[in-house]
Amino acid sequence: MTTDNLLWQTKLAARLHDPAEKALVLLRDPAGHENGTSRALTRLLGLHEIASDTLDADNDEALVRTVFRQGISRAMYRQVQRADWWAAAADRPQWPMQEHTVETAKGERTFKVAPWAQVRWTNQPVLVHPLTGDTFDLARHGGLGDTDFRDIKERSFNHHADLLLALERQAPGQPLDGKKALLTLWRFAPELSETADDGKLGELWKLLPADTRIPDHSIWDHLDLTSAFAGAFAADPQGEVALLTLAIGPVQPFIASARKMEDLWAGSHLLARLSWEAMRVVAERLGPDAILFPRLRGVPQVDLWLREQCGLPEDLFKDCAWLRGSTDSNPLFAAALPNRFVAAVPASQARELAEAVQAQVRAWLQALGSQVVERLLKEAGVANDPALPCHAQMREQLAGFPDVHWAAVPFSLIGIANADKQTGLDATQLSAAMRPFFSTADGQDAGFLSTPAWQLLQKELAWAEGGKKSTFFTPNPGVLYPAVHDLAERALAATKALRPFAQSRQEGWRCSLTGETEWLTTDRTELCLPPGQRGPTLWTRIAHGKPAWATKGEHLGALGAVKRLWPTLFAEEVGRALGRKDAVSRFVVSTHTMALAHQLDRWLQREGGCTPELERRLERYRAQLSPVALPRRLLRHANRAAAEDRVRTAPLLPALLDLAQEDGISEHEASALRRAVRESLASAQGGPNDARLETYYGLLLMDGDRMGAWLAGGDDYAISYRDSFHPQVQKGFDEHAQGHPDITRYGRQKRALSPGRHLAISAALNDFSLTVVRHVVEHEHLGRLIYAGGDDVFAMLPVADLLPAMQRLRHAYSGHDPAHTGGRDPRGLTLHQGFALLNGRLMRMMGTKATASCGAVIAHHQAPLAAVRRELAAAEQRAKNEGGRDAFSITVIKRSGGALRLTAKWGEPLALLTALRRFLAHESVSRRAAYHTLQWLDAQTLPAPEGDGAMLQSLLAYQLDRQAKGPAKGQAAALAQRLTALTLARPASERIAWLRNFISVAEFLAREVRSGAGEDA
C-alpha cells in the first residue's frame, strides 16, 4: 500500500470510528453504538476484517464492498485509537469515573462512567451553546422520544452508503478512490438527504452531539478532529503531529485602497481567495478536515474545488445554493474566509507545507497578474509583446506579495511515559518553550500550564464515596491542545514582528489607487509626464473602452489593476463553473440609486405614473439611457406589484438624473429633467409635486467585538466546565462534588481552548456572513451588500432602512432577538438563544454573550467615496473606543458642510432614535418641531438637569406636544420620559449637548424620510 493510500484509508477509518447517530442510539441499542453503523460501514470499505460466513447478502453492501479488499492493520487501528483519545481529550472536559467490579472469574475491578452521568439523550435532548452555555431544550419543540433507534441506524447507513455508491457509479468496477471517499463523507455526510431523512431529523442531524454528557459540540466536530489527528499520525514517519498556524497579509491596506464600491468588494474578496489558495495546499495533501480553523465545510469556493479539481460527482452538489445563482448574489461572491488558518499537520512536514503555501499563493497571484496585463492590452488594442514594460512591472510589483507568516509547534514537546495508554504526561519541555513568549521566570509555568484546571488534571484526582473509589480520566496529550495552540499563536506573532523588506525602485507618477507604485505602461517614458502632457496611454485607452476598469484620468499599478479587473475575471470564472457561455451578471447599485431606493419602491408599490413631461423626456433621451441596477428587494417588489411598464421605467429614472449631471446637458435642461422625475415620483406619495428627491444614502460597517479574544478563549470568553455539562449531569456533579473542594473548583474553572470551540466560531461566522447577512440587507431591506466575511459586514442602504438594518444585524450576529421569544419572525429569520432559523435551516450563531460594534455614515451621493469611507472607519472605531464596544456610532455628513456624530450603546438609544425619527417624520407633526425644541435647549443658558430630571422631562413633553396634533400628539410624553432617562445617564457636563445632538440626528433622519422616502407601514 502506498503512503498516500495509507493516509486516506487511515482518515476514512478515523471518520467512521463513531456512528453519526451515536447520541440517538447510546444506552438504547443492545449492540452498542460501536457495533452499529460504524462497523457496517467499515466492513463495506474493507476497513474491518470479517469472516466470509458473516457477509451480508444485501446487494448495495455487496456492491460497495467490491471497492476495497484490504482490511485495517493493527498499526492503523492504533493510530485511529490514539487520534480518538486525543480528539476527545481536546474537546471535552475530564470525567469523574467510578470504580466497579467486572463480572469475571477473578472479579476484576475497573472504572466506568458513574450512573448519574449516563445520559439517555433522546429522553432529554438538550444542546448547549459552546460559547455561552445557553441551553436549547428540544423537548420543548416535540422531543425525540418517539425515535426508533433501529430506524435511525438504517437511515444513517443508507445515507452513507448512498454517498459511496455515487462514487462507484462514477467509475464502475474500479477500486474506490480513498481520497474521494474521504472528501465525500467529510462534505456530505453531515447533510442528511430528504430521501434518507423523510422529515425525521432535519437540521438536527448536523448538530447531534458527540458526547451526550457534554452536548456542546457535534459528532461531526469530533470526527473531523479525529480524522485530522489520524491523518497527521499516518503521514509522519514517527507518528508525530504539529499545529501549524499561518497568516497572509497585509489585510487592511490592501482592502482600504479604493476609489469606488467595487474596489472595496474586490480587495476583500481577492484576499479571501488568496487565503483559500493558501489553505488549498494543506487540503489537497491532508484533506480539508486537517484545517481546524476556519471550518471549510460548505464554503462555496471549497465546494467548487471538490467538484472541479477533486472530481466528486456533480449530482452530490445539486442542492448547493452556489449552483443556482446567476448573478453576484451567488454565495461564491462572498468573501467567506479569513486571512489565517490553524492546521494539524505531520510534524516532519510542517516547514515544507508552509513554504509550499507561500510558493502557491505568490505563484497564483503572479499568474493572475499576467492574465490582467493580457486583458488590458487586448482591450487597449495593443499587441501582447512579452517585452512590453507592463509585463515586467506586474511581475516586479507583485514579487513577495502577499506576506506569509507561519509558526509550527510539535506535540512531541509533551513527554509521554505510557505510550500504549498515552498517559503519564510531562510538560517540562513545553513549559520551557513557552516561557520566552510569556516573559515568565525559569521554573514557572505560563499560559494554560499555569491554570488551576491543569494543576488539578496533571495529577490523579481521586476520592472515596460509598466505599467506591472515584477518579478523573487520566489526561492524554489532547488535553494540552490549548497550551500548544497558545505557543503557536505567540510564535506567529513574533514572526510578524520580523518583516523582511525588499526595496523596489519606483519611478515617475504613482498608481491612482494605492499611491505606492508606478502605473503600468507600454512606454516607460510616459511615467515622467504629468497628466496634462501625456499622449494616449494604456490607461486612457482603457478608460475610453472599459470605464469599469479605469475611469478618466486614472492610471493604475499592479495591485490596483488586479483589484479593478478581479470582479470581471471572477465573474467569468463563476460563469464557466456554472456551465454558462458568458460571465455571471454583476451589478453595482450606485450611491445615487440607493438614495432614491425608497422613493422608487413607493412609486412601484403605489402604482405611481409618469407625467407627460417625464414621458417626453424618456422618449427624447431613450437612446442615451442605460437602465441602472436596482436593489434586489425593490426588484422583487416591482415584479410582484407593479405594472410591466413601470418595472421597465424604474431603472431609467436614476439614469435620467445621472444624465442631468453630464457636461453636455444645459442647466435649464438638467433642471427640467430633475423636475420631471421628481413630480412623477411624488405622484405615488400623495404629497406635493415639489417634494424633494432623496439625495442621501447610508453606509454601515459592522465588526464583531474582541474576535481575537473569542478565538483565544480565556476567563471572560469561555464557559465553565460545569456549564458545558448536560443539565442532568450538572445536577449529579453538584451532588457528588460536595465535600470535595478540588472537584468543585474544577467544575468552576473556565473551559480551556479547544478545536471544537474554533470550529463552532468558524461555523457561526460562515453561516452569518454567507447566509444571514445577505438575507437581512437585501431581502428584508432595500440595501446592497458590498462584502461580508466572518464577523465583518459592509453594506449600503437607503437612509430610511439604515437604523433597522443595523439593529437587525446586531441581533443576527448573536443569534438572539428578544422579540422572537416564543414565536417566529414573519420575515423568515428567527433568532433565539444563539441560534438562527431561516428557510428551515437551523444555524448556530455566536451566542448571546457575543457583541458587535457598528459604524454608519449618512452622506450625499456626490460626496467623494474615499472621504466617506474614512468617516465610516472612524465611526466604527468610535463605536469600539468611545462607545466601549457593543455600540453604534452614526455620522451625518451634511452637504452644506459640517457633520453630526452620535455614539451610543445598542438597545434603548437606537430604539429611541428610531421612535423619535418616526415621530418627527409623522405627517401630523410640525416640520419645525425639532427646531423649536433645540431653540430653548441651549447648553449655555439651560442648567444641566439634576435629580430625576422632572423639569427637563416636563419641558420636553411640552415642546414636543405643542408641535403635534392628531394621533402623534399622545406620543410626546412617553418620548420625553425616555429622552430624559437617557440624558441623565450621561455625565452632567455633557447632558444638554448630548441631548441636542441626539435630537439633531433624529431630525435629520426624519427630514430625509419626509422629503420623499417615506416609511414602511
UniProtKB/TrEMBL annotation:
MF GO annotations: nucleotide binding
InterPro entries linked to this entry: Cas10-Cmr2_palm2, Cmr2_N, CRISPR-assoc_Cmr2_N, CRISPR-assoc_prot_Cmr2, Rev_trsase/Diguanyl_cyclase
Transmembrane stretches, start-end: none
Biological process according to GO: defense response to virus
Protein name (Swiss-Prot/TrEMBL): Type III-B CRISPR-associated protein Cas10/Cmr2
Residue ranges the record marks as coiled coil: none
Organism: Melaminivora suipulveris
Domain of life of the organism encoding this protein: Bacteria
Keywords, in A-Z order: Antiviral defense, Nucleotide-binding
